[in-house]
């Protein structure tokens, strides 16, 4: 298991930061995020905390170092793939904190990545705190379980063989591929690669938040939505794919975008 | 607004998102939120989305991921 952690601060009020969090895709730093859906959302009547579960679909590329260890039919050419991320968020506006947790849903047999964030309102947290400041601490945990399932299966087979010494031609062949790998070192290589990558992805996440926050300051929610439209046009090309979605309220900004 | 995984749900998602953002920024964040006012729209959006998730065959995977979340949380806390 490896852990990466970092802290940052936003010079915006806590409520604004939480709003930006829900509005953060798409932004210029999130071109790999293809869709975002809300799976569940409820307001706890006792605590007044808002719980949200979202599903993001992200385009991803498996790093070459990991790709080398995977059977070819697991990924597309060049390691291109898309993967789902499950995100849970709890906001407590009264106590001034927001907790988030995002985890990958596929590849968990190879590398399980869990990103946790704690946002805290600094205007109430400490003496001497400034008016508009929100702290954010990010922790990313990687656990590679690579080979664990295979070891478990092998053990089960061994036990089965003790009871029944039948031939096991096909199992020896299947073990061949994995037997060449030293699972422990593969696990740690995978974890290291994950750690290296997430430093970049946490930085990009914060940059994306800053873009959304500045759009909020300039033009409110409207400003963020206009910005998103612009990002999407740049990303997809103005080919009509999103025209249905954005039919409403497209006046001046659409002319500017389609130039 | 962010796009839905299922293009056929984009329209209802946009209506729900718009409702949520208004409620969240004008009511919840200001401390006057007795209830979520967008429940009706959310129900419509969810029923569209659930159908799509089922058709794509990923409803099962999501269910499992949501269930295991609680287990692994406990595991991480112990370490």
Automatic annotation (TrEMBL), chain A:
Domain PRELI/MSF1 as annotated: residue spans: 1-189
InterPro entries xrefs: PRELI/MSF1_dom, Slowmo/Ups
Domain of life: Eukaryota
Gene Ontology CC: one annotated term: mitochondrial intermembrane space
Protein name: PRELI/MSF1 domain-containing protein
Lineage: Eukaryota, Viridiplantae, Streptophyta, Embryophyta, Tracheophyta
UniProtKB/TrEMBL annotation, chain B:
Listed InterPro entries: MDM35_apoptosis
GO CC terms of this entry: cytosol; mitochondrial intermembrane space; nucleus
A GO BP annotation: phospholipid translocation
Keyword Disulfide bond: yes
Assigned keywords, A-Z: Disulfide bond
Molecular function terms from GO: phosphatidic acid transfer activity
Family: Belongs to the TRIAP1/MDM35 family.
PANTHER family linked to this entry: TP53-REGULATED INHIBITOR OF APOPTOSIS 1 (PTHR46403)
Designated name of the protein: Mitochondrial distribution and morphology protein 35
Record organism: Corymbia citriodora subsp. variegata
């Amino acid at each position: 298991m490896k852990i990466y952690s970092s802290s940052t601060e936003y010079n915006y009020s806590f409520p604004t930061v939480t709003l930006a969090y829900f509005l953060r895709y798409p932004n210029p730093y999130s071109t790999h995020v293809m869709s975002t859906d809300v799976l569940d959302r409820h307001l706890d009547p006792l605590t007044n905390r808002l719980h949200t579960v979202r599903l993001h679909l992200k385009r991803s590329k498996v790093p070459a170092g990991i790709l080398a260890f995977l059977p070819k039919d697991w990924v597309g050419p060049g390691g291109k793939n898309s993967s789902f991320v499950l995100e849970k968020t709890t906001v407590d506006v009264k106590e001034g904190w927001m907790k988030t947790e995002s985890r990958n849903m596929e590849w968990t047999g190879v590398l399980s990545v869990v990103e946790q964030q704690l946002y805290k309102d600094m205007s109430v947290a400490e003496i001497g705190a400034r008016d508009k400041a929100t702290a954010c601490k990010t922790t990313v945990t990687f656990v590679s379980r690579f080979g664990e399932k295979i070891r478990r299966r092998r053990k089960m087979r061994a036990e089965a063989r003790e009871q029944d010494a039948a031939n096991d031609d096909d199992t020896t062949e299947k073990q061949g591929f994995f037997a060449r790998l030293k699972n422990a070192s593969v696990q740690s290589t995978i974890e290291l690669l994950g750690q290296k990558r997430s430093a970049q992805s946490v930085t990009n996440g914060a940059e994306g938040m800053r873009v959304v926050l500045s759009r909020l300051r300039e033009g409110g929610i409207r400003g963020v939505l206009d910005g998103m439209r612009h990002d999407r046009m740049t990303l997809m090309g103005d080919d009509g794919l999103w025209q249905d979605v954005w039919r409403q309220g497209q006046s001046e900004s659409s002319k500017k975008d389609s130039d | 607004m962010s796009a839905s995984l299922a293009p056929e749900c984009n329209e209802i998602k946009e209506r729900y998102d718009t409702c949520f953002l208004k409620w969240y920024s004008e009511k919840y964040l200001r401390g006057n939120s007795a209830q979520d006012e967008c429940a009706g729209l959310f129900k419509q959006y969810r029923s569209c989305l659930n159908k799509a998730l089922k058709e794509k065959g990923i409803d099962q995977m999501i269910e499992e991921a949501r269930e295991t979340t609680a287990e692994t949380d406990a595991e991480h806390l112990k370490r």
